[in-house]
Amino acid sequence: MTAASKHSDYIYDRIVRIANYLVNEDKTIRDAEQAFHVSRSTIHQQLHTKLPEVNPALHAAVQAVLDTHFSERHIRGGDATKAKFANMAHAC
């Protein structure tokens, strides 16, 4: 096995682990960024380019989770802002 194929095997393994993390734990790409120490842009790019080659069914499941998060992002952002200001009010 060449060094290049070991590297690509590692990347494919990592993207499958990240995809399973997103689907099974219902986590966001930002959560995955912190858990796997990989940038959001790298995760996003690999989910959309490499994952369909490796596991199309898992890609569909990931896409469903990401679509749900996309449709809820205005709510999540509002909740985060509300919590931020509630914490600031208690600190004063």
Structure description:
The chain is an all-alpha fold and 92 residues long. It has one domain. It is built from 5 helices and no strands. The protein starts with a helix and ends with a helix. The chain is 88% helix and 0% strand.
Could you give a quick summary of the protein structure above?
The protein has helices spanning 3-25, 29-36, 40-49, 51-54, 56-91. The chain has five helices and no strands.
Helix-strand blueprint:
Layout: H1 3-25, H2 29-36, H3 40-49, H4 51-54, H5 56-91
Helix pairs in contact: 1-5
| Parts with pLDDT < 50 across at least 5 consecutive residues | none
Class derived from helix and strand content: mainly alpha
The proportion of residues in beta strands is under 5%
The profile of the biggest β sheet is:
none
* Total E-strand runs: 0
CA radius of gyration is: 17 Å
Give the overall form.
elongated
In angstroms, what separates the terminal alpha carbons?
61 Å
- What level of helicity do the residues show? over 70%
Mean model confidence by pLDDT: 86
